Amino acid sequence: MNRRSVLAAGAVAVGVVGGAAAVRSVGESTGPGSPEPHPEMDVETRPIMQGTDRETPVYELRAPESGPTAMVFGGVHGDEVNGYRAAEEVIGWRIEAGTLVVVPWAEIVAVERDSRHGPDGDLNRTFPSGEAPTTELSRELWAAVEEYDPDVVLDLHRSRGIYDTHHRWVGQAIFPTGAGDAVADARAVIEHMNAERVPRVMVPHRFTLGNTLTGANPLLIHKVGGDLGRPGFLVELTDFLLDPGTQTRWTVEMTELLLERNGIVRVE
Ligand SMILES: [Zn+2]
Q1: Which of 16, 133, 173, 264 is most exposed, with the fewest beta carbons within 10 Å of its own?
Q2: pLDDT, tens digit, for every residue of 7-42?
Q3: CB within 5 A of ion ligand 1: which residues?
Q4: Ligand 1 mean position to 158 CA, how many Å?
Q5: Which has the closest alpha carbon to 261: 207, 199, 191?
Q6: What is the domain extent for residue 181?
Q7: pTM of the entire structure?
């Protein structure tokens, strides 16, 4: 069964008709790695770009207690596997307070093609600050951001090379917005990863702090900084001499630490 028929079957099973935005409990696979929500969590999905070949789910994990809202994006670039695998893991978390909104496969056509770009090119160049996003997909994604009004936003990526080492590549870095404690949070997580995770011999792989994202470029987290003025983090791993499993594990750990510092705490 392909993805679209799974989505269609899921929609039919709960009797959603007439094109209304479907909100349903997660009971079956909805995309690439078929993430399983935690059995004790109340999780629903709703579609972005419903009824098109770009249709992709937004997972909403609501904790029993009120708290901040966080959004986590993966698959903005379809070949950055660590980003969407990490987002899929987050879907399986249990949290006790707040709301965790995960868009694991933002550009699902690109994810399925294992290509950086989707049919409209580079999704992460379609979010200009101070004006509407420039594609239908980016407008729907941004509409979800505005609707959830998150306290913090993460966008998970991977680059070929390493920031400050390889010309124009940006791996092994966190790029924060300038809002709240975002810069300090990024710095703390970087220090943790370098002290606890990056082997001493892997000097180039030590994480660094990227520039502050304030809306100067049409990237999703730039727009979070420029238009929302909220903490946001563009997390970049590297494909350079770092195996895919480690890329994903480190992405998950940095996501967990950044969310924890912003009031969304994973419970084991
Ligand atoms: Zn990327």
Answers
A1: 16
A2: 333 333 333 333 334 454 454 457 999 999 999 999
A3: 77, 80, 157
A4: 5
A5: 191
A6: 3-267
A7: 0.89
